[in-house]
Amino acid sequence: ESYSYLKPNDKVTILSCSPILKTVCNVQKISKVLESFDVFESKFTDVEFNSPNINVVVCDVDSVDVENKIVKTDKGGFSFDYLSICSGAKPNVIKSSNNFIGIRDTDSILDLKDRLENSKRILIVGNGGIALELVHEIKGCEIVWSIKDKHIGNAFFDKDASNFLFKSKQEQKEKQDSNDNDSEIMIKENNNTGTISNSSVYKNESGSALGPQWYSKYNFNQNQMVDSVNANLNIEYETIVTEIYDNDDSKESNNFINQQNFKNESEKKWPIYAKLNNGNVYGCDFIISATGVIPNSNVLLKNRKPSEHVALSKENALVVSEQMETSIKDIYAAGDVCSVEWNDSKVWFQMRLWSQARIMGRYAAQCIAKQSVKGTKDEDNLEEICTSFEFELFAHATKFFGFKVIMLGLYNGQGLDLSNQEQYQIYTREILGEQYVKVILENGKLIGSLLIGNTDLEETFENLILNHIDLSRYGPEILNPEIDIEDYFD
Ligand SMILES: Cc1cc2nc3c(=O)[nH]c(=O)nc-3n(C[C@H](O)[C@H](O)[C@H](O)COP(=O)(O)OP(=O)(O)OC[C@H]3O[C@@H](n4cnc5c(N)ncnc54)[C@H](O)[C@@H]3O)c2cc1C
Ligand SMILES: NC(=O)c1ccc[n+]([C@@H]2O[C@H](COP(=O)([O-])OP(=O)(O)OC[C@H]3O[C@@H](n4cnc5c(N)ncnc54)[C@H](O)[C@@H]3O)[C@@H](O)[C@H]2O)c1
């Protein structure tokens, strides 16, 4: 849509193995760089694009004939002048087995819901966004949660913020707050949007990633009477899974099960067993691997000639230039599949998030449009719909454990030596169950902030980071709730 907006007469073809398109609606600017929005799913056939020149083909993309500029699919070849690869990523599932699942698209969630119906114990491996959401949402069955770290949510939070969330979650349990706003939202969304499968119609490819607040549409609480916190959550800190056995009557699995000192026979009947490096063994109904993603870069890698060098990051993402172009001319990439290494803003870093995929998509469209008119009379007339300003500050708004969470800049001191106390100051403010605020200053200038709960500080802190204002003289007073920090900078 961005490309068609800029060049309405050009033909745009979307090749997707999922018949569902995710669209962003109700975009609200929270601040200069932060947006909140709803994600809706619609069938391609129901979507009215802003241009009649946009055409969708549901097909399985196999590979790209770079030399002849043809995308090869099961529905034939599609030639292109410019190609943008936006094939996302797939879950990095640590073992392939029927009793081991990853979460990515609607199908994977429907499968999870089905499995939970009859489950008594599950194991969740991984300590990022998906695991946090699942642990909060799944009730009514025992959860063993294996995390490599000393605190929960390491992919997003440091120890203090994680403790705040965890303790606040426990406090919620104590309060047994039955007027949970979340569940009201859940009911409304359920009625309004329903569930459409965004899965791929091709078995070997997954559909598009679920994205923000996906869980508000699904209820994982089999037993409605269970309170808002899972009483049966057993966190195995600082552990990794070392052995996994399906209970498939094989020699290995029988040996493994018989070696365990299970107290009763029923313990020998779980569908799958996992052994952790602390020696603990858990039998469970199934295991969820919430262990990050692997970029779907394969379409560009398959059948390529040795001369066609594709630059890849260490996690196999397509490295893009400042114009979002891959190392192959006229082939661009955006979203989870790409790796942005050109950005020299100190307070931006890539995370595979919907918010970043959206910006990258728009920016890639603009870069392609610019390239397509380069050297022509239209060059000066092309509108700017996106600037590199959107890559200047890392900004993410989300929700964990029912709390609004805003992350700005190097909110965890990413890549910094925070032990250097002369250079870096960290101040925090915490009201348990309500809000947690952290700021990181480098030589007196704000470079990152984490806001949990309704703090109303996002706009002010964003400005302070972007304007490089020296705050040294305020010290910890910067977080004094009695002081309206905005007044200082009017
Ligand atoms: C459970 C979950 C929760 C999340 N929650 C959040 C959140 O709260 N906030 C946030 O910012 N981000 C969140 N994310 C991350 C976010 O969803 C992704 O970063 C974002 O969707 C990436 O967009 P994308 O367009 O690059 O990839 P995708 O959305 O995955 O889209 C890729 C598309 O390419 C298609 N495709 C792939 N291979 C082929 C092929 N060979 N042929 C044809 N089509 C193909 C797929 O079917 C899919 O439609 C979440 C992700 C998950 C899995
Ligand atoms: N609210 C949000 O913003 C949100 C919510 C869910 C998911 N997401 C995004 O969706 C994507 C997928 O989420 P995710 O939770 O799978 O990934 P993630 O990157 O958030 O977290 C991956 C976790 O798995 C752990 N891990 C990796 N390999 C492991 C292994 N072999 N054994 C044990 N642990 C291992 C990592 O230490 C990390 O804790 C990510 O890009 C994430 O940012 C975002």
Automatic annotation (TrEMBL):
The keyword Flavoprotein applies. Residues 169-178 have a biased composition (Basic and acidic residues). Residues 169-202 are annotated as: Disordered. The keyword Phosphoprotein does not apply. Transmembrane segments: none annotated. Keywords: FAD, Flavoprotein, Signal. Its cofactor is FAD. Belongs to the class-I pyridine nucleotide-disulfide oxidoreductase family. PYROXD1 subfamily. This is Pyridine nucleotide-disulfide oxidoreductase domain-containing protein 1. The lineage of its organism: Eukaryota, Amoebozoa, Evosea, Eumycetozoa, Dictyostelia.
